[in-house]
Design a protein that fits this description.
Elements (H helix, E strand, L loop, with lengths): L2 H12 L11 E7 L4 E5 L12 H11 L7 E8 L9 H10 L6 E4 L4 E4 L1 H4 L12
Helix pairs in contact: 2-3
Bound molecules: zinc ion.
């Protein structure tokens, strides 16, 4: 599956965003190495800390279906903002554990597309290796 198709699915997921507070809509789509896709959208809450970002929704969906880090090929994350947005700090930490550090993270706002990775977005990351002695 090419990046354009993955971005299209992420934009479709964005239509399902629940964002009554920020009005900032995010969609995401994880592509697994066996060709499956898992979409996610941001789901806000009046208790803002309970909000879940679109990329976490998508990667949690993939994991909920039994996929793991080695199975994930790429993730597309899209917004309706004026500029291309990168994942928030919480999502960078989550993605650093759940997808390969070199897997493409394809970011787009429909006008511009940028390809990053966990390696580029979170170079000095806290991992499970920090917990071992
Ligand atoms: Zn986030």
């Amino acid at each position: 599956m090419n990046h354009e198709t993955l971005l299209k699915l992420a934009f479709e997921a964005m239509d399902n965003a629940y964002a009554p507070y920020s009005h900032y809509h995010v969609g995401a789509c994880v592509l697994t190495k066996d060709g499956k896709t898992f979409i996610g959208a941001n789901i806000e809450n009046a208790s803002f800390g309970a909000t879940n970002c679109g990329e976490r929704s998508a990667v949690f969906a993939a994991y909920s279906h039994g996929y793991r880090k080695a199975d994930i090929e790429a993730i597309a994350i899209v917004t309706d903002g004026d500029r291309v947005a990168a994942p928030c700090g919480i999502c960078r930490q989550v993605l650093s554990e759940l997808i390969d550090a070199k897997a493409p993270i394809i970011l787009s706002n429909g006008k511009e597309t940028v390809i990053e990775s966990v390696e580029s977005l979170l170079p000095m990351r806290f991992t499970s290796e920090d917990l071992s002695e």
